[in-house]
Write a structure and sequence with these properties.
Blueprint lengths: L3 E5 L3 H13 L3 E5 L2 H10 L4 E5 L7 H11 L4 E6 L4 H9 L4 E4 L4 H29 L3 E2 L2 E2 L3 H13 L6 E4 L6 H10 L8 E5 L5 H9 L16 H4 L4 E5 L6 H13 L1 E2 L8 E2 L3 E6 L3 H6 L5 H7 L2 E4 L10 H16 L5 E2 L1 H9 L5 H15 L4 E2 L6 H4 L20 H19 L4 H8 L3 H10 L6
Parallel strand pairs: 1-2, 1-3, 3-4, 4-5, 8-13, 8-14, 9-10, 10-13, 15-16
Antiparallel strand pairs: 6-7, 11-12
Helix pairs in contact: 2-3, 4-17, 10-12, 13-15, 17-18, 18-19
């Protein structure tokens, strides 16, 4: 389907020129002589892009832009004006314009801008298709990914969930072991019953037995009342024992008895209690090696390891990074009250090059930080930490520019980058030139010279 562009300008010659230009590029082009007619067309049909003049009678470009945003959030807008003022650029960008161009402009300049915008639109559409694919079967709870290793994981979850067997989940920290345990629980016949989780390495050794099995009043100093243990709470449901490798050997013996006899004894009591609970354990250690070192009981290992599920690191499934980014943006938009649309292609490329020692948990932290700090509605590389931006150490943002076989106009490309950086800096500082110059690391005099070079009026 041809991409649709709506040209809005009160000058007939400009409308006709742009119509001929973009029709020749293969776009489906329509025109409107003012904002009123443009809105009628937008209400009647869908347009991918609107190119509108800033200065028009009755309804100016900014007012039209605001109305377009109310009608269609997916339609991109370029504003153009013969009055090259920083204030109008900043106002347009604040209202949601994706780019800004001043008259007179070079034909190649506006063609490049439009081409980049449609590349962005294509990326958005890919994300929508990806989201649909996730919703159609490649997602369990908050587990996200469509890579082959993740599809195999989902198949494994479907197979083992209905069986009332113990499961051992292994994988590096941050790979989502608890999410997998919850998915197994929710896909089993114990769904709707309790799911209780505990990190065995986070509870002091002298308190862990009481946490798991409960205690009787007076059983030890500080036991001022009876306490229900987690196994009691999880009865008829599932208990998830995270970092099981950190459980003391003495307590491993008591856990083994629960697995064998389906009963336990609270601290300080003299009788046992029956329990019906499914045990899912997890560890970021190699428990087989721990058994060899006499750090973990062999009999307990084999009881827990009826089925082992090994979770891949994020380094092993980097093709899932774009879908994870979209998922975490959506999640933290709700949490932080933000409206971030997506991550830029440069940002995604940087994240794909990063090693993620903290796996999916680290990626979520990175995206949460970026959602909180980003000043626009697209996560840019500047909102990532230095660790991530340094993932391709020795390079720079220029490394992210692709050079096609036919080559590029280097001077023109550099000018475009410089102009965009200046407009973005001005938008970030609400038009305060001194702050914008500081943000770009140049002198105020140099900043004013560049404003003049691009035809942007200086107050």
């Amino acid at each position: 389907m041809a991409k649709k562009i709506l040209i809005v300008d009160d000058e007939k010659s400009m409308r006709e020129f742009l119509e001929i230009l973009f029709a020749g590029e293969g776009y489906q082009v329509e025109v409107a002589e003012n904002g009123k007619y443009a809105l009628e067309k937008l209400k009647a049909g869908r347009y991918d892009l609107v190119i509108t003049d800033m200065q028009m009678p009755q309804m100016g470009g900014v007012e039209l832009l605001k109305n377009i945003r109310a009608i269609s959030s997916s339609t991109e807008v370029i504003v153009m004006t013969a009055y090259a003022s920083t204030e109008s650029a900043v106002e347009a960008m604040k209202c949601g314009a994706c780019d800004y161009i001043t008259k007179p402009f070079k034909i190649d300049e506006i063609k490049i801008i439009v081409d980049k915008i449609f590349q962005t639109i294509a990326l958005k559409n890919e994300n929508l298709v990806l989201k649909k694919a996730l919703d159609e079967g490649y997602r369990f709870a908050d587990i996200v990914g469509i890579s082959s290793v993740m599809r195999e994981l989902y198949d494994m979850i479907r197979q083992v969930a209905p069986a009332n067997i113990n499961i051992l989940i292994s994988g590096e920290s941050g790979t989502g072991k608890e999410l997998v345990a919850r998915a197994i629980h929710s896909c089993s016949d114990r769904e709707g019953k309790p799911f209780v989780a505990i990190n065995c390495g986070a509870v002091p050794e002298n308190l862990l037995e009481s946490e798991l099995f409960g205690h009787k009043k007076g059983a030890f100093t500080g036991a001022t009342s009876n306490k229900e243990g987690l196994f009691d709470m999880a009865d008829k449901g599932t208990i998830f024992l995270d970092e099981i490798g950190d459980m003391p050997l003495l307590l491993q013996v008591k856990l083994l008895r629960v697995l064998q006899e389906r009963e336990f004894r609270p601290v300080g009591e003299t009788s046992d209690r029956k329990v019906d609970v499914r045990i899912i354990a997890a560890s970021n250690r190699d428990l087989g090696e721990s058994v060899k070192k006499n750090e973990f009981r062999e009999d307990l290992f084999y009881r827990l390891n009826v089925v082992q599920i090994k979770l891949p690191s994020l380094r092993e499934r980097k093709e899932d990074i774009p879908s994870l980014i979209s998922h975490f943006i959506e999640k933290h938009n709700k949490k932080l009250g933000r409206k971030i649309v997506k991550a830029s292609s440069e940002t995604v490329d940087l994240l794909k090059k990063y090693d993620f020692p903290g796996n999916v948990r680290e990626l979520e932290n990175i995206i949460e930080r970026a959602v909180a700090l980003e000043s626009s509605n697209v996560i840019m590389p500047e909102s990532l930490s230095e660790d991530v931006r340094g993932a391709e150490r020795g390079g720079s943002s220029l490394d992210l520019i692709d050079i096609p076989e036919e080559g590029i106009d280097m001077e023109k490309t550099m000018e475009d980058m410089e102009k965009k950086l200046m407009i973005k800096a001005l938008a970030s500082t609400k038009g305060v030139r001194t702050k914008a110059a500081k943000l770009l690391g140049i002198s105020f005099r140099s900043f004013r010279y560049r404003l003049s070079k691009f035809g942007i009026e200086d107050d």
